[in-house]
Amino acid sequence: MTTTASKETKGAREKILDVAEEFFREGSFVDVSVRDLTEKAGVNVASVNYHFGSKRKLYLEVLRRIFASFAQMKITKLGQEFPQDKAPDLRKLIETYVGIYLGSEEALQRTQGFLSLIARELSDDSDAMELLMEELVIPVNALMKQAIHKARPQMDEKHIALCLSSITGQAFHFARCPAAIQSLTGETPSETQPGDLAKHIVEFSLRGIGEEIEK
Asked: Which residues of 148-180 are buried (b: 16+ CB within 10 A; e: fewer)?
């Protein structure tokens, strides 16, 4: 294959992935039409089988790319803030981690879009769930657990894992249920700011970790 042909093949594959990601973010696997997808990408229908083998494999490759991208964003942010050769400040660490999910309106919308995708596509799909764990959950959790251990070396691995899961769960709960939170707090949508929710999670989590250490 010539260099030009190789570039064209790679270009077609990337075009399909770009358009497929857009389609699968908006609709379910069943709802997405390969014909509509390839028409928008400017390639023929057979290109999906040629590059990916099937619509199912294309779908899983799109999920892999989404999860890996989200993981890289988190890892890069955490790596910039907390060099691995230093013990991080625990408050700052948790603030940065929670801020990735709820630190701004943009972060909240990104998290809500991601959670919608997860809820729609992964509940009964073991292959997709495996991708989520491999590409996103495991690497990000490994980095965070290592950082928390450096900040609080007296905590054992199990409790670090449970505390991190609790912090993540709080962020996801607030992102998924803003109307319920507003109803419970009596605030209007304009009064409920993502940053305020993030601060609450940080304070609540720090107290929980502190009490756990004292036991």
From this structure: bebbbeebeeebbeebbeebbebbbebbbeeee
